[in-house]
């Protein structure tokens, strides 16, 4: 009888995380939002991921944390695993103080089926995790014709936002792709970073 009661208690405890979250995630590969660039570079968990990834590529491992286009705004890693999925790119964004405020995962394809399937499946997972939870608000933009994109946003009372977006847009090469983007960001820091860029114009 004691074994049955213990088993039931363990089942309840292990089921709790699956019910949902009351806060939007703010830590990625061991790096918390609001960490500095140097703290990101020295994070053991992320470093292990990068070292394993580039185990046989010394040059790539040494330059993994280089700024994209030599601009101290973001660091990009390719072929990263997150949320049970493989992403073509993962980008860490930093403000003028080199404070980490946003992370973005994305993948693109010439044909719409694969990335749209990723969007739909990931949306189910995110709704299961966040929708209806105390302190989290969900908003949806489903009008594709407006700007060739749809999105679902989860805004938490811990200052974090999670946005899932599917869009048809141009890559840096000018070619058009169907993209799926998963972005997490600190609302206050992102707003400050945006105004910082505008002041430079």
TrEMBL record:
<protein>
    <submittedName>
        <fullName>Uncharacterized protein</fullName>
    </submittedName>
</protein>
């Amino acid at each position: 009888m004691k074994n049955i009661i213990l088993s039931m208690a363990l089942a309840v405890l292990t089921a709790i995380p699956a019910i949902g979250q009351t806060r939007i995630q703010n830590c990625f590969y061991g790096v918390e939002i609001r960490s500095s660039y140097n703290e990101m570079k020295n994070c053991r968990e992320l470093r292990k991921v990068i070292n394993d990834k580039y185990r046989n590529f010394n040059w790539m491992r040494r330059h993994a944390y280089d700024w994209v286009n030599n601009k101290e705004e973001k660091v990009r890693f390719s072929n990263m695993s997150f949320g049970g999925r493989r992403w073509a790119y993962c980008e860490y964004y930093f403000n003028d103080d080199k404070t980490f405020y946003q992370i973005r995962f994305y993948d693109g394809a010439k044909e719409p089926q694969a990335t749209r399937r990723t969007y739909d499946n990931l949306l189910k997972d995110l709704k299961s995790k966040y929708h209806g939870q105390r302190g989290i608000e969900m908003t949806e933009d489903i009008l594709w014709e407006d700007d060739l994109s749809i999105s679902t946003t989860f805004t938490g009372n811990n200052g974090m936002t999670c946005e899932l977006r599917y869009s048809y847009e141009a890559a840096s090469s000018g070619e058009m792709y169907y993209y799926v983007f998963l972005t997490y960001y600190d609302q206050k820091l992102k707003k400050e970073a945006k105004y910082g860029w505008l002041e430079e114009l």
